[in-house]
Specification:
It is a single chain. The protein is an alpha+beta fold. It has a domain at 3-87: RRM (RNA recognition motif) domain (Alpha-Beta Plaits), CATH 3.30.70. It has 5 helices and 6 strands, in the order αβαββαβββαα. A 4-stranded antiparallel β-sheet has the order 2-3-1-6. The chain has a two-stranded antiparallel sheet with strand order 4-5. The longest helix has 16 residues, at 118-133.
Length: 153
C-alpha cells in the first residue's frame, strides 16, 4: 500500500480517556470496516503514569471505511469523553519548519527561495565600503547649534 493511500485510510482519534486501549478502539471502529492497524502513541515521559498521549490512529483497509468512521464517530462519546475523529495528516519532517533543530537559513528550501546572487552581494559590499571610506566631516550635523532657543518654523 502506498504512503498516500495509507494516509487516506487512516483516521486520527483525539480526546481519548486513559482507560481506552487498542482493544477498545478496535471494538468502537470495527463497524465501519476492516481495520489494518491501531496505534496509541506513548507519552514522552514514560514515568508519568499515562498509558498513551490521549490520541491514536486507526488505519482501515479501505479509504471509504475511514471516511465513514469520520462521518459517524466525530463528536461521539467514548468513556464519557467527546472524541475528535478526523483524517490523519502526514507527519512533519523534523528537519523542516517549526520545531526544527536546524536554523532556517541553513535549510535547503530557504536558500533556494531567498538566496542572493554572488554579484549582487559583491556590489552591495563594494557600495558599503565606498560609503565607509569617505572622510566624515566632524562638524556635519552641528549647523545652527550655536543659536539658543527653539527653532523658528
Amino acid at each position: 500500500m502506498s504512503e498516500t493511500t495509507r494516509l487516506k485510510s487512516t483516521v486520527y482519534v483525539g480526546g481519548l480517556d486513559q482507560a481506552v486501549t487498542i482493544h477498545t478502539l478496535a471494538e468502537a471502529f470495527i463497524p465501519f470496516g476492516e481495520i489494518a492497524d491501531i496505534t496509541l502513541p506513548k507519552p514522552d515521559i514514560p514515568s508519568s503514569g499515562e498509558l498513551h498521549r490521549g490520541f491514536g490512529y486507526v488505519e482501515f483497509e479501505l479509504a471509504q471505511d475511514a471516511k465513514e468512521a469520520i462521518d459517524n464517530m466525530d463528536g461521539s462519546e467514548l468513556y464519557g469523553r467527546t472524541i475528535k475523529v478526523a483524517a490523519a495528516k502526514p507527519q512533519k519532517d523534523s528537519n523542516e519548519g517549526l520545531g526544527s533543530k536546524t536554523a532556517i537559513w541553513e535549510q535547503e528550501g530557504y536558500l533556494a527561495k531567498y538566496a542572493v546572487s554572488e554579484e549582487d552581494r559583491l556590489a552591495a559590499e563594494q557600495a558599503k565600503m565606498a560609503a565607509d571610506s569617505r572622510p566624515q566631516d566632524p562638524m556635519q550635523g552641528l549647523e545652527e547649534l550655536d543659536v539658543a532657543g527653539p527653532k523658528p518654523e
